Amino acid sequence: MPLEKNEEKLQAALAAAASVKRKGGLGRGLNALIEGSYDKKGERPGSSDRLVSHPVNSVGFISVEHIEANPYQPRTHFDKEALQELADSIKIQGIIQPVTLRQLGTNSYQLISGERRLQASRLAGLETIPAYIRKADDQQMLEMALIENIQRENLNAIEIALSYQRLLSECNLRQEDLGDRVGKNRTTVTNYLRLLKLPPDVQIGLRDAEISMGHARALIGLDDPKLQVELYRKTVAEELSVRRVEELVRNGYGRNSAEAKPKAEGDTTPASSAVPVAEIRRAERHLTDRFGSRVQVRPTPKGNGEIKIAFDSVEDMQRILHILQPS
Predict the structure, then answer these.
(1) What's the CATH class of domain 5-137?
(2) E strand or H helix at 9, and its extent?
(3) Res. 33 pLDDT band, cuts 50 70 90
(4) Is 145 helix (H, G, I), strand (E, B) or coil?
(5) Cα Rg for the chain, rounded, in angstroms?
(6) Residue 26, pLDDT above cutoff 80
(7) Is the torsion defined by CA of 130, 135, 139, 144 positive or negative?
């Protein structure tokens, strides 16, 4: 999200000053750049009970004791070792980039973004940290927290997918606008959202890095959730590559159909299609990626057939129709 010009200038000053090593964090000269960061006696807010009031769209030092967590924080797990490393860096260099807060009342603030910086600052023993104060309602809080995490944190694929889903459902964003808000193309966003259609066991495996997103995308090509779980477990047990999983899916893994089994001698039942199964699967995968929805290609022995495109809602149908329209 774009920041106001005064914030950009102040953050540039913070970044420049942080390049100079100093003992005890931010120096007096840098603090003087921050509106209201010192009172007339040169004392930093937080050193006494007389905290200055910080107007909206300003940057100042806020006592960490007066900052409460963001209830809309999409990330629940933070690596303790990484937090300690950040805390050690903060002890030497101070806070380079301010956290973002909204003011709830007198000496009461709520975090919008910067959870890791806040936690690490507490570990480092800081009493106050630089913060940008802005106005935000609950929906804006959620949207900013989600987008800040998507853009800056090392989220796993399921956390990203859940964040996208929350932006759609709770922030009333349309899917065609979501990509622009998070800086991703629509196909990328759609591929993440499709991960949420996988069975819980597979989602947990992806979250825990037992399989990669490439594996998960290949598993989406199976229609049956039971087969998805079965192939997921086989992938983990046998350490199958993404290419191997894709191959198994293309060849009709687990299907007891004529297209997945060779015909018995003397069987006059016609094959489901003269088109090779692998070619059908490639077409389905290509179209699924193109439309961001499950696509089934069903040719017949006569050379004709049908293509089925699934949609989840009226809005999703309209999105697909928009893609089909000639440019």
Answers:
(1) alpha beta
(2) helix 5-18
(3) very low
(4) helix
(5) 27
(6) no
(7) negative
pLDDT tens profile 261-313? 444 444 433 344 566 777 777 788 788 877 877 788 887 766 778 888 887 77
Query: What are phi and psi for residue 102, nearest 5 degrees?
Result: -120, 145
Catalogue the E-assigned strands of the chain.
58-63, 67-68, 99-105, 108-113, 128-133, 295-299, 305-309
pLDDT in tens, 89-125: 999 888 888 998 988 888 889 888 888 899 999 999 9
Active site residues: 115
What is the DSSP track for 221-285? Answer: T-S-HHHHHHHHHHHHHHT--HHHHHHHHHTTTT--STTTSPPPTT--PPPS-SS-HHHHHHHHH
Helix, strand or coil for residue 108? strand
Q: Could you read off the pLDDT of 135-179 as tens digits, one per residue?
A: 777 777 777 777 776 766 567 888 888 888 887 877 777 777 787
**Tokens 């301010």 found at:** 98
Rounded (5°) CA angle 87-88-91:
85
Q: What is the pTM of this model?
A: 0.49
Give Cβ neighbours of residue 77 (< 8 Å, ≥ 6 apart): none
Distance CA 10, CA 222 (A): 52
Relative orientation angle of helices 242-250 and 277-291, to the nearest 10 degrees: 110
Look up residue 250 and give its two tokens. Answer: 């293309």
User: What percent of the chain clears pLDDT 70, i.e. is strictly above it?
Assistant: 71
Q: Is-contact 156 209, C-beta < 8 A?
A: yes
CB distance 70 to 44 below 8 Å: no
Residues β-bridged to residue 58: 133
**pLDDT band of 55, cuts 50, 70, 90:** low
Q: State how far the Cα of 130 lies from the Cα of 9, in Å rounded to an integer.
A: 14
